[in-house]
TrEMBL record:
Residues 215-333 form the Dynein axonemal assembly factor 11-like CS domain. One of its GO terms (cellular component) is cilium. Keywords: Cell projection, Cilium, Cytoplasm, Leucine-rich repeat, Repeat. It comes from the Eukaryota. Gene3D superfamilies: Ribonuclease Inhibitor (3.80.10.10). Belongs to the tilB family. It is found in: Cell projection, Cilium; Cytoplasm. This is Leucine-rich repeat-containing protein 6.
Length: 420
């Protein structure tokens, strides 16, 4: 509420210097001195405040309006050293001696007590002027120098008379308070208990009532009941769940308050183990795996988990145990898959290189005889004498052929010319 009232100041409370909180049904002053320490003007009229309190930290406060409240004693303003104007119109201040607590407020110039019971006391004005000589006006009327001198001279006598009248008022007020509390309690417990709301409202507003704090509380209570009866019944709207932060980061949500285990021990995958209820039908589960989060919906309740690394959505696998009912979602990491592929590729390349080296070694050296089988192992071939130019007497054994003799029944055909 206070922040809403500070809309003209971009809803900033700390530097706020003026605020109006009138007609807000405030019953107690609290927190305002901590939220708005630089306040100069504070308007709290037309509320239900019964005690002046929690204002001692407002060192810059100059104007305080507490008119139309339920205040009966002036107190706890001695530390508001900058206070220049105090409005307590139409309260229930009967303890007039309590104004002596304002003696230390040297800057106080304007005081309003109109409509309080203390104004009916004899010599009320002279007592206030004599007690607070720093005042310039009282109840909107300027104080003359002659009035101030006369009030100061007669203050001891006036004070004794004021104390007597104050004591009589306080006794009457105590009796009134007890009587009104009993009457209001009996009225609501007996007379208004089974009465129709419309008839009750008519009867209440037609009755004459006293001017007292208890009656003000009752009037406000009736007003709230009337407003509540006139308002149409509103269905409770479920607060929408925010799944993502403004920057797009997914929130961690566990609406179902279900136990789970998340494992990232594997270098290439994440494993999520959800303790799904054993007898919950799998058709009531909805699983959505995205690159940076996983979401499981259980009977309309959302479980969402933000993943520390991106995963492959196409290769994600969801399995459910038939024994325990647990749901296990396995999500391969994008970086883990790339690394494994690179590792396999490097391993295969290493193996190919190793095989090539083995084959090359097999072609040269002593292992050559495994394929050629030429001569004994001790023989060493001299490839320098393999051609005629290097050795004219060398005859290649592959071209040395034995003459083939014809068979015994071979008949030479004379018509066939001889081979040249």
């Amino acid at each position: 509420m206070v922040r809403k009232k500070a809309e003209h100041h971009d809803r900033l409370l700390a530097p706020l210097e003026e605020i109006s909180l009138h007609q807000e049904n405030i019953e107690k002053i609290e927190f305002i001195q901590n939220w708005c320490p630089k306040l100069r003007i504070l308007l709290l009229q037309s509320n239900l405040i019964a005690k002046i309190e929690n204002l001692n930290k407002l060192k810059h406060l100059q104007y305080l309006n507490l008119a139309l409240n339920n205040i009966e004693v002036i107190e706890n303003l001695d530390r508001c050293e900058s206070l220049t104007k105090l409005d307590l119109t139409l309260n229930f201040i009967g303890k007039i001696v309590s104004i002596e607590s304002l003696v230390g407020n040297y800057n106080l110039q304007n005081l309003y007590l109109t409509g309080n019971p203390c104004t009916d006391f004899d010599n009320y004005r002279d007592f206030v002027i004599g007690t607070l000589p720093q005042l310039a006006t009282l109840d909107g009327v300027e104080i003359d120098r002659s009035n101030r001198i006369m009030a100061l001279q007669n203050l001891p006598i006036i004070r004794s008379d004021i104390l007597f009248e104050q004591q009589n008022y306080l006794c009457q007020r105590q009796k009134q308070k007890t009587r009104l509390q009993n009457d209001i309690t009996n009225k609501w417990e007996n007379e208004y208990k089974d009465m129709d709301p419309e008839e009750r409202n008519k009867k209440f507003w037609a009755e004459k009532c006293e001017h007292a704090p208890e009656v003000r509380y009752e009037i406000e209570h009736m007003r709230q009941l009337k407003l509540k009866s006139e308002e149409p019944e509103k269905k409770e709207e479920k607060r929408p769940i925010k799944l993502f932060a403004p920057d797009g980061r997914p929130f961690n949500i566990n609406q179902a308050k279900i136990k789970f285990m998340f494992s990232d021990a594997e270098p290439d995958k994440f494993i999520l183990d959800l303790a799904v209820y054993k007898h919950l039908d799998s058709s009531l589960l909805d699983i959505d795996v995205q690159t940076n989060y996983v979401r499981v919906t259980l009977k309309g309740k959302i479980f969402q988990l933000h993943l520390p690394e991106e995963v492959e959505t196409t290769n994600a696998v969801a399995e459910r145990s038939q024994t325990t009912g647990h749901l296990v979602v396995t999500m391969p990491k994008v970086n883990g898959t790339i690394k494994s592929k690179m590792a396999l590729k490097s391993n295969s390349k290493t193996q190919i290189d190793q095989r090539c080296k083995e084959n090359q070694t097999a072609i040269t050296g002593q292992s050559k005889r495994e394929f050629l089988e030429i001569g004994p192992a001790e023989d060493v071939l001299d490839f320098t004498k393999i051609t005629k130019k290097s050795n004219p007497s060398y005859i290649d054994p592959r071209f040395t052929l034995d003459e083939k003799k014809p068979s015994h029944n071979f008949v030479d055909d004379p018509e066939v010319p001889p081979l040249v």
